[in-house]
Amino acid sequence: MNQNFVLILVLLIMLSIVNAIPHQLHKRKTKFGPCGDYPVLDVSVSPDPIVDDKNATYTISGKLKKDITDAYELFVFYYVDGAEGGNNQNFDICTEIKCPVKAGTKFEMKQDALVPNLPSNGYSINVGIETKDYSKFELIACAGTHV
């Protein structure tokens, strides 16, 4: 009888230990949404979550209300909450897609961007398409996320 009691006690302890071990959580996917009243780009990033000082590959797609021409560029902007400025990277969009892309035509592209040192939370990422000529600034599409 003592042996049965010890066996049951050991099994209950092992069950308690197994239950106490954290289960692998489902990886949270970074979700990009609208930024302001601009048309929204569909954006995903890999690796997800991003890794400091490594390239992240952004997959960007959508149908825009304006033509994409060589007058526009893609930007990836990292901003840490409460910090002044941010890390802005600009890319020639027409090196990744064949320009012009007529309004209403779906496009898709990939762009690598170097991830700066970021805190584990409390930062934003914005991805958008804007004019290269800042004197005639126009943002034609954007997507953002806050971590």
From TrEMBL:
InterPro entries documented for this protein: Ig_E-set (IPR014756), ML_dom (IPR003172), NPC2-like (IPR039670)
A Gene Ontology molecular function term of the record: sterol binding
Top-rank taxon: Eukaryota
UniProt signal peptide: 1-20
Domain MD-2-related lipid-recognition: 32-147
SUPFAM superfamilies per the UniProt record, alphabetical: E set domains
SMART domains, alphabetized: ML
Keywords: Lipid transport, Signal, Transport
GO biological process: sterol transport
UniProt-listed Pfam families: E1_DerP2_DerF2 (PF02221)
Physiological role: Catalyzes the intermembrane transfer of phosphatidylglycerol and phosphatidylinositol.
UniProt family annotation: Belongs to the NPC2 family.
Oligomeric form and interacting partners: Monomer.
Descriptive protein name: Phosphatidylglycerol/phosphatidylinositol transfer protein
Taxon lineage: Eukaryota, Fungi, Fungi incertae sedis, Mucoromycota, Glomeromycotina
